[in-house]
Amino acid sequence: MGVIIRDLIMVTMAMCLISVANAAQGTATFYTPPYVPSSCYGYQNNGVMIAAASDAIWGNRAACGRMYRVRCTGPTNQGVPQPCKSTSVVVKIVDYCPPGCQGTIDLSKEAFSVIANPDAGKIKIEYTQV
Fold it and tell me: Does a structural domain hold residue 19?
């Protein structure tokens, strides 16, 4: 019985390491309403757990509709030394953040607020497609 439990623990640990290894790193900023129209869906309302993709993930509209789990990993400046909250958020890509975009993912203010203090303005993140 002990061998089975040990093996189960080892498999679980390996799966966790694989999921962490697949996480990309970048930065996140936020934008404020109105959230429509969007580049992907025009005037369709997609709620507030949404984001705009920068060129790093946009892929000529291929990112439209993709879901990403985003987690704050740290500050990008000295303004808010510990901006992160100990949670993640899942967002849907509905828009394009044009060249000059300050983040890899531009989250809605509501989504940003779930994972970090909005006063930070820009944070370091890990993100994975779900």
Answer: no
